[in-house]
Amino acid sequence: MNIPKTIKQSFQVNFEFDLIFTSFLFKITNNILVDLLSNQETKTKAFIVLDNGVSKCWPELNDQIKKYFDYHKEKLDLKGDILEIIGGEASKNDESIIKTILEKVNEFGIDRHSYIIGIGGGAVLDAVGYAAAISHRGVRLVRIPTTVLSQNDSGIGVKNGINYFNKKNFMGSFAVPYAVINDDSFLSTLDIRDWRNGISEAIKVALIKDYAFFEWIETNVAALNNRDLEVMNELIYRCADLHMKHIGNSGDAFEQGSSRPLDFGHWAAHKLEQLSNYKIRHGEAVAIGIALDSTYSFLENHITKSELERILDCILNLGFSINYTEMNNDIIIGLEEFREHLGGKLTIMLLKTLGVGFEVHSMNNDTLFKAISYMDNYQENK
């Protein structure tokens, strides 16, 4: 009789990386990047992928980067030309982009001690990060986020992914970046939609984790609308800090369970993006998703009417909309797709009060449609 045998394996891997804040990273007098990448023994190889939306706003950037690497050529080796790829969600909808990046990794001999540097918005960083993660089972990745949303949320975590089967982030990986560098000079050329986009992620994390931060956002609505860079830098820092603390302290950095507190408002947001063929941007969809789940929380008697009105007013005063024509019966499909994406039972974050979230495992469809109607009426009467 054969006796079954089992060898149990258990180990821990410690991950750490720095989120660095600076201005004008590629000025030759700014040593942050060269100090970060330098290897004492050999020149460090790096390959750069650039969001073409960034290069359009910064036509001198390509030359600045080349001059920076040339100035530090004793330590840094820039391989090939800078690869420009389409910006926005289109970068996550075209798998040929991943193939092109992999071809360049192979052509330039980028190995696990080399660096891929991604410069751009959150979608581009998602795609570049995915390519880096599957090259040689993981090439070192330096992210340089260039939008508010990517500097305070999507560019500072451990997730990478592209869209597939018409589903958000169907293909992806958990891979920790080598470093993230937030350069606030890139924010100066953002259009108003991209400036505003990332504020919704700050509202999200404030509502579920930090009431004082939500109050701060309410107080600074006018400054944010007037594109006050100092105020925006404070918002980005506080939002990023809350996100990174959650990732580091939750005990589930790679999301093995079903709980996703930082996805408050996102089940509807992901579906709205897809229903609109990605004409609605992520942060805009998140604002609607936050409004929906907050209104649902109110209709289920978890938060008061005055608390809900503060949330909806904050979102509207920042220039977001809280209704969208695509938010019809198809939005309910987003619940099942979100459950499938979680990989376990449906887990949705709602609000117990401002600054405190709690989880539920089902939502009432009738109440959801009442919430959508409530939001429509609220915006119309403002």
Overall description:
This protein is of the alpha/beta class and 382 residues long. The chain has 17 helices and eleven strands. It has helices at 32-37, 52-57, 61-71, 90-93, 95-108, 122-134, 148-154, 192-197, 199-209, 211-219, 221-225, 229-249, 266-275, 282-299, 305-317, 333-342, 365-380; strands at 18-22, 44-51, 76-78, 83-85, 115-120, 140-145, 159-164, 167-174, 179-183, 348-353, 356-360. Strand 7 (159-164) and strand 8 (167-174) form a beta hairpin. The longest helix is centred in the middle third of the chain and has 21 residues, at 229-249.
What is the arithmetic mean of pLDDT? Answer: 92
- Please count the beta strands (DSSP E, at least 2 residues each): 11
For the biggest sheet, the summary is:
7 strands, parallel
**CATH homologous superfamily placement of the largest domain:** Dehydroquinate synthase-like - alpha domain
Distance between the termini: 77 Å
How much beta, percentage-wise? 15-25%
The H-and-E topology, N to C, reads as EHEHHEEHHEHEHEEEHHHHHHHHHEEH
**What sort of overall outline do the alpha carbons produce when their principal axes are compared?**
globular
Q: What's the architecture of the largest domain in CATH terms?
A: Up-down Bundle
Which CATH class of the largest domain?
Answer: Mainly Alpha
How many DSSP H or I helices? 17
Helix content: 40-55%
- What is the alpha-carbon Rg in Å? 22 Å
Helix-strand makeup class: alpha/beta
> What are the low-pLDDT stretches, counting only 5+ consecutive residues below 50?
none
